[in-house]
């Protein structure tokens, strides 16, 4: 949107301003320095511009060939005051499409803070950072060979303005230069190639130069980097970075010999790299470094109060064209990065990749805000693509809002802090307490719900009935047991009688037993009644009936025996006679008692 | 004693305390079982171990990513190239499904655990479960005390730890739990006669079938026990309920598992269960008929049926024998056969014999793996005979069979471990019981003599009778035996007293008990010794868990004077393959590294640890044992791009490919007879020094392993074989080195593309022996098994 507005704006103003501005500005002096020591090409130009025309100028145009412009990662411009003082104020630089310009050129316009009036002079510094501008040549080298790269640019500064005096310096990583385009006023001093000075060149002067030189700096390119910054209001910012790294230099050919690599560590490391250095924020903790198959054990962490440095070593030395992928993660104290103002929370954290000298092709930064965050927006010092997502983790209900920022062609210059503002309400936040509550509810429900399959099912009813049968059966058995106990008492009284001859106490015992028997009979009938009515009892009913009958018989016999003994005592029969009289009874009693015991045992097992 | 004095309420309270104590002890046992297995994570990292777990992990990843239906239909084209493998139909899915559903449940609660983490911790979680299952099983056999002791022993038995440390994500991890739990449910059904438990038992058996091929152990052991019960006259309806539903439901369910399928009714491993099923039905019928017929009639019927039955049986057995005999392996799978006949594998199947865990164990390995349990087991067996119940006879049978199996294969030591733990638990708990009881009695006497209170002596005698009474009920529900559950005993005692039968018996028991009371000093010393033994066991287990069994084997460490050194070469190589080769490239290596290559490097392999196709493995073995050119032809015909060899000579890693090489020769020679083992041996000795045979020094494995090795120290001293290598300087013509890891442990070579044909023709015509060359090619073609 911003761009379209700019385009519209330009379209409107072009007719009035543009054509004169192009010719009116004159570059009095231009100093251009190209730094080729690393894989990113940094071009610093200092311009001294005079407005020679009648009208005021509000912007300065910068021109790049389109093939170069594609690789521009960053373009910055500053005012320069005096010799080396550079103001920290960055000027706005925008992509523009002025009319009437040669094709295959891309233009950027530096918006001046203050219009440049006629005759005024302006000092401007422009920094342009290019990626993928060093081409390895030859494209394939063997393990022991040295990597050579080619860089192409113009000896003259490509500009829509007339340049009065200009010079160019190309800084190389080493003295070993394979070749460079010889040109007037060009010379190689140490590791720097100088072109110029050249004077009074017309607009759009262009003379290609080629530098072919030795470069042993690591060409680490992260094809994809996903940074996930997760804010937890418990006091932690968790950063997780997933890298897909490739060595962007000359491809390795003819295999890899570990022997050659180990025997000549310095020579062979020229085209490969082994370590990467990540500069993490101070007080980073819980640092880990792993990939999809586990922890990578080759890493070192050192740090003090001002910085934390993590040296990571990929699983294998990286040769040209080799790829790897890994993940590093660390926690940061929340109070270092989250600030509060006017009820809003402000996250201030660095945007780019913490690893030194890495070019990132596609960088995605995901800021995971706590559940319940609202009205959040970000302010990033450069243009990014943005959208929102929802992420669920750690027992979330509503999910956490995620702000996603995407940028291509990221260089270390982008390692700047950015801001995310948010307002946070506790209502939207659900935490573990919700689940604990749910657990309680579930428990309560569980305790109050009858889990049996059905109350009316046949099996359930039969089970109930069976329970009833069992209780009444137990009742019957207990009654019978009591009867048997009374029997015991009667027998005891008889024994006492034979010992003491106290007929009266024996009779009393008999009387008591009779009354107990009556009571028990009542109880027994009650229990039997309920037992008989139940269909489930049909199986055991005959046994119970038999038991009751036998017991009654036993009882009768016993009473008979008792009365006959007492009778005999009263009639003063001799012991022998008494025994004769009751012998038959005794025999029967023992047999009956045995049967009753058997029956009780059988029924007992059923209970 | 105190409980005795107090009214019933106090007894209930004490019971409740006992239960809570028991619960917390079990909880702690679970924690111990889980945490003793975390040494590997703490000392190394949270990573999947060894070989098979990597395959399981890969399958789990597939399951969680693609869902259950795709999983059943998964045809894996990353392995056994060019044949592929139907994973869904050839894998025991129990472990995968368990971990997969654990992951799914966690993730549906938005708990962000990765599949890898879940897989790593599956084994420890299930060992806690196994400890609890052991408690249940032993409780059914001998009561709570023995149950807790057995659970504690199992929680840290080294044999089980060796298979279930965190990261050892293998079938055994869940299978041992399933095994014990199935046994528990069987015993529970046997004790209760409940059809509910019988059904659960079948389901648990189903889970076991899903989890591990060792389920055949269950389906043979339980019939053996049922048969034992029948033979010893212990048949009851409970036995029928415990056995018959298990066979019927269990077999039906087992047939549902794709990898088992019709094997559940077709292979000999399952015949025992069907035979016993028939027998138990006959026995049940006989009991039924005896119930309804008068004794005379029954005798007549018996003679009739026996004559008829024997003829039918003979006929059936004849048919069965004929059927079994008609199949070449007699209906038994190779692994089962090697169980029955320990010499079978070494004679006929080198591929089974080549696996170290299929070798018979040595005596020291018994000591490392079950430690003091080996000495406690005999005592426990005596404990099981006092009194002998259905349940305790089962435990004895389990022990005896598993001792035999563990003697055949070191891997089956794992099956022995639970049995040893249960029986040792019984031994420990029984001896503790007797000793503490003796001390109690002596202390009571001391107290009473001091206080001269008549009451306390009577109490003492009462307390003495109690445990005896409880010990008394042999065949009945063993849960009531529990020595700690005082109130139950009290109740029982009261009941018995009511019946008026108890007095005589208790007198008898009292005399028995008197005999078990040991002198005070002896008891105290014995308890101290037992505690010492236990402490020794714990120390040994912790040592085993921390030192012996925690190494993940893909990361090696060594301690040297300058500290810990990590050898992470395997993952270095796999990561390199993963990132720097084409997705469709085929990698050839010995089958040991197949699973790891597919899982970690995500590349297609020729053979892997599944070893289902002997010919294919023999082809790779042949290639490794052939000279370079023939090997190149074989590999090229298999579309192989890279060859991976493991070489330990530089750092002294003993289980490398050179040490496994004779197996490659044997397996290769078993299929392709031109590879002859004697060609690689000098006077029957395997050597790689200057005395080695020419065939050995020319074979591909030698060349790939030692390529440019001599340049490291100038002599080529192999630290594993402790000798200088025989052939030091040579060049590779058909392979080129593309990657070697930091410690040279893994070396990857690439097949060079074939040379330009025109040049070759020119050369041939120059040499002028066209027919000769053609002959040579033909001869070579014959040697190459793929032509």
From TrEMBL, chain A:
Its biological purpose: Subunit of the oligosaccharyl transferase (OST) complex that catalyzes the initial transfer of a defined glycan (Glc(3)Man(9)GlcNAc(2) in eukaryotes) from the lipid carrier dolichol-pyrophosphate to an asparagine residue within an Asn-X-Ser/Thr consensus motif in nascent polypeptide chains, the first step in protein N-glycosylation. N-glycosylation occurs cotranslationally and the complex associates with the Sec61 complex at the channel-forming translocon complex that mediates protein translocation across the endoplasmic reticulum (ER). All subunits are required for a maximal enzyme activity.
Coiled-coil boundaries: 575-602
Keyword tags: Coiled coil, Endoplasmic reticulum, Membrane, Signal, Transmembrane, Transmembrane helix
Record-stated family: Belongs to the OST1 family.
One of the GO biological process terms: protein N-linked glycosylation via asparagine
Pathway info: Protein modification; protein glycosylation
Example of a GO cellular component annotation carried by this entry: oligosaccharyltransferase complex
Membrane topology (UniProt): Single-pass type I membrane protein
Name of the featured protein: Dolichyl-diphosphooligosaccharide--protein glycosyltransferase subunit 1
Superkingdom to which the source organism belongs: Eukaryota
Keyword Ribosomal protein: no
Keyword Coiled coil: yes
Secretion signal, residue range per the UniProt entry: 1-23
Oligomer and partners: Component of the oligosaccharyltransferase (OST) complex.
Subcellular location: Endoplasmic reticulum membrane
Species this protein is from: Spirodela intermedia
TrEMBL record, chain B:
Basic residues bias locations: 757-767
One Pfam short name: STT3
Compositional bias per record (Basic and acidic residues), positions renumbered to this chain: 473-506
An annotated GO cellular component: endoplasmic reticulum membrane
Residues annotated as domain Oligosaccharyl transferase STT3 N-terminal: 21-423
Major place of residence: endoplasmic reticulum
Subcellular location: Endoplasmic reticulum membrane
Keyword Endoplasmic reticulum: yes
Gene Ontology MF annotations: dolichyl-diphosphooligosaccharide-protein glycotransferase activity; metal ion binding
Record region (Disordered): 455-506, 757-787
InterPro entries the UniProt entry points to: Oligo_trans_STT3, STT3-PglB_core, STT3_N
Co-factor(s): Mg(2+); Mn(2+)
Gene3D superfamilies per the UniProt record, alphabetical: 3.40.50.12610
Transmembrane portions of the chain: 20-42, 86-106, 118-137, 143-161, 173-199, 205-228, 240-265, 271-289, 301-325, 366-386, 393-410, 416-435, 516-539
Catalytic function, reaction form: a di-trans,poly-cis-dolichyl diphosphooligosaccharide + L-asparaginyl-[protein] = N(4)-(oligosaccharide-(1->4)-N-acetyl-beta-D-glucosaminyl-(1->4)-N-acetyl-beta-D-glucosaminyl)-L-asparaginyl-[protein] + a di-trans,poly-cis-dolichyl diphosphate + H(+)
EC number: 2.4.99.18
Membrane topology category: Multi-pass membrane protein
Pathway info: Protein modification; protein glycosylation
Function: Catalytic subunit of the oligosaccharyl transferase (OST) complex that catalyzes the initial transfer of a defined glycan (Glc(3)Man(9)GlcNAc(2) in eukaryotes) from the lipid carrier dolichol-pyrophosphate to an asparagine residue within an Asn-X-Ser/Thr consensus motif in nascent polypeptide chains, the first step in protein N-glycosylation. N-glycosylation occurs cotranslationally and the complex associates with the Sec61 complex at the channel-forming translocon complex that mediates protein translocation across the endoplasmic reticulum (ER).
Family membership: Belongs to the STT3 family.
Protein known as: dolichyl-diphosphooligosaccharide--protein glycotransferase
Originating species: Spirodela intermedia (Intermediate duckweed)
